[in-house]
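[Q] Does anyone have a clean structure-token version of this?
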Amino acid sequence: MSPLASLGGVGDGRLVAWGEGLLAAQALLFVVLLGAVIVVALARWWQRRRAHRVEVARDRLANALTQTGALAQPLLAELSALPASLQEQLVLEFGRTLRGDALERLRAMGRHLGLVARARRACGSRLWWRRLQGARLLGAFDHDCPALRRLLDDPNPTVRVEVLHWAAGRADAQVVQALVDRLVDPERLCRFTVRDSLLHLGPPAAVALADLLGRDDVDASDGSLLVDALLVARGLAHPVLLEPVLALAGHAAADVRARAIHVLGAIGSERAVVCIVAALDDVEAVVRQAAARAIGELGHWDAALALAARLGDPSFPVRREAALSLRRLGSVGVLVLRRACGDANPFVADMSRQVLDLPDSVFHRVAA
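[A] Here you go.
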């Protein structure tokens, strides 16, 4: 055989091997694609089946919760056959919106299915997402237990936020004190949640805040805590807060004094008014601004002349707030502003004209 013929035979063998490898690769690719199509089809079928089971269970549970008496055994058996994740999903959907007998029937269902016990165990888990799930379930049941209360001090902020939401429906001393202690939580979302929960609690929170604001150790050491506590106190505006807030109106920190003046403006009373008017002469502009606004919010027209003196304040925010408050006082304040338009001090005259020229719609928006 010639050398060329032998080379041709070798080339044909390589070509055949390459072709067989290509066919095997195509076959493998076809099998992979077919497997992927089957997996996707099975996943979609499973999702549709899961959604159908949830929808049926949701409708039956909704009907059962609106009726009287205990849940029927066939429904409980049907719910028991559902995966635990679907059971928890249904509880979270219904729990936040139910009250009274309907919530009690949902709790009975949770006890029957073991969801309550499972959630309590999850609250003690080392994994934060398990603790979060347990807190959510117990919150949906409006369930109270030591395991859930311990999570008020959980190291994870997401868990703390969930439990702080639950705490808004509890008015006992332990929960209220825990909320007050969390006013200086390092996480901003937790602080906002604490404020909202305390405002929701109302008078019990006001009493706890009054005790906090009256403590000498807090007054001397933690200005940030005082500022956050006074922010909540302004929203509560309860008379029990008057005494400690009056004391804080003389605090060394200007931001604390300003917050205290805002609270006094929300509470009112003769003693509060005297303190607010005196704050118009504070050395710090932020306090004078707070005092000017508080007088306008109280509608204390006897202080119109004191406000007029602030129209020439070196600080623009103070001048602006004084003019806005004068207009809030009605005819007396408007008269003072009109007279001030001819003042020799250009700051006084300019600010008075600006506020008087504001249309009512703009004034109410600016003064809000």
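[Q] Thanks! Anything notable?
[A] The CA atoms of residues 301 and 329 lie 6 Å apart.
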